[in-house]
Request: fold
Amino acid sequence: MNAAACGAPLDLPALLDYWLGDLAPGAVDSVEEHVMSCAACADELSGLVAVGAGIRRLASAGRIWTVVPGAFLQRLVDEGLHVRQYRLAPGGSVQCTVTASDDVVAARLDADLRGITRAHLVKLDAAGREVHRIEDIPLSDSSDEVVIIERTDRLRALPAVIEYLRLVTPEPGGERVVGEYTFIHTPSP
Ligand SMILES: [Zn+2]
Reply:
């Protein structure tokens, strides 16, 4: 990061929203005006775009398990990728699969995130054991969902199995469960 050369650097969420096309028109103008005249923030944006392109490549190849903004998933759809999506309410379950034609498999977890400033995403196996965790997932103020991209290579190798995702928020004395989501996986026919 080279923002030391800038007296009022654009913040990362604003640059990310700009890159995703997720900013209001007025905010777009102010980002563009700033970046036109500020080499430091232009560098920052270039770096972000490079990382974004890498994430997009990895996502479209099904190589990463990660939380993404909803606008990012929409961008993959707009680019013509075959995106299989499952939407779940807290406490909900879904019968899921992956087919040979799916480029990306995503889970959209509805969650009441009001008042929550930190959240972790936990993956549990059929026995309820924690197998993966993403600490401090990105939370956007306006969002009432958490969008996850799965690894399609891993999904394609799965037998019929149940897995769980759990959103938790740290609180004094422990973690509070914000939502738990059940995935009843069936291998592709
Ligand atoms: Zn700047």
User: Anything to note?
Assistant: The pocket of zinc ion is lined by residues 6, 9-10, 34, 38, 40-41 (CB under 6 Å). The chain has a mean pLDDT of 88. The longest strand covers residues 174-185.
